[in-house]
Amino acid sequence: MPFIQFDGPQMSKEKKAELVAKLTQTAHEVLGIPEQAFSIIIRENSMDNIGAGGKLLSETHK
Amino acid sequence: MPFIQFDGPQMSKEKKAELVAKLTQTAHEVLGIPEQAFSIIIRENSMDNIGAGGKLLSETHK
Amino acid sequence: MPFIQFDGPQMSKEKKAELVAKLTQTAHEVLGIPEQAFSIIIRENSMDNIGAGGKLLSETHK
Amino acid sequence: MPFIQFDGPQMSKEKKAELVAKLTQTAHEVLGIPEQAFSIIIRENSMDNIGAGGKLLSETHK
Amino acid sequence: MPFIQFDGPQMSKEKKAELVAKLTQTAHEVLGIPEQAFSIIIRENSMDNIGAGGKLLSETHK
Amino acid sequence: MPFIQFDGPQMSKEKKAELVAKLTQTAHEVLGIPEQAFSIIIRENSMDNIGAGGKLLSETHK
Predict the structure, then answer these.
(1) Disulfide engineering: E4 pairs with which of A6, C27, E11, E40, CB 3.0-4.6 Å?
(2) Residues 6+ positions from D32 with CB-CB distance below 8 Å
(3) Structural domains counted in chain B
(4) Which residue ranges does UniProt annotate as crossing the membrane (chains A, B, C, D, E, F) (predicted)?
């Protein structure tokens, strides 16, 4: 712990590596918890599977 | 917020759109929170990845 | 399954009962899955623990 | 309820069945809750999507 | 990783310790992943916050 | 979307505000998604409710 679940769009492996590195560093700096203690799961979602305000993102972002 | 995570089976894009629209409307009516404030993530799961009562759904629903 | 996780604000027991009944009925009608198969967890959150657009809701909703 | 979300690596259907059976039995024995009440979702993750200590598992497990 | 989220009822610290120890050991035996790699979060829920089949557990378990 | 769930220890409101601001900014910079699109839920956990390597953190961090 801490444990971060990140639900976002599809992304490249390079972006995942950068996201994991920087989110971990940022949270470490704010909370003073060692970087080694952090785990992150990135979940990649289709715009068909996300709703905002009652509409699918795949419809509103056309 | 509110934020809804919906774990269900595979479904068509039309069903996803209907589900997002109607769950948002329903929760809006119950809680009085504007529809714009709602986010929903639909997670589609294989029956091989769900257990109920100690058995996979893919076994019990054969 | 399906399984719904609902993150929202504090609410009364009456609202929880109504939310569980109506979300279940709504999803049942959309997907044709029996109501008995649905589980819902309601998580009640302080406005101090929710961020939107980089700000706590307890700050933006003052 | 109880409801278990298990984030792990890719695994065979046989391992999923064994995991669901044994986690359910174990939790039943500890808590005294009937096995029928347990639901489990297994989420299979790529090593590219998991970070530990600021690095992707796909990098540290090379 | 693996990461287990366990949503259950209120329980004593002794039960939490036993649950964490035995779920970790069980999953280790099934998957062959070292026990050190497992994290578990136990979330304790009021029966007012759980719905099954459209009804709160606090109503159906009276 | 994106949606971030952050499971960590108890923390002050000031730390929560800083965490939400900086995680949002960091993820915005990595992914190029507008800050307004991000939601974060902070879940505060007792060390009695977190297990690592089969032991409660409240035991290993004594």
Answers:
(1) E40
(2) none
(3) 1
(4) none
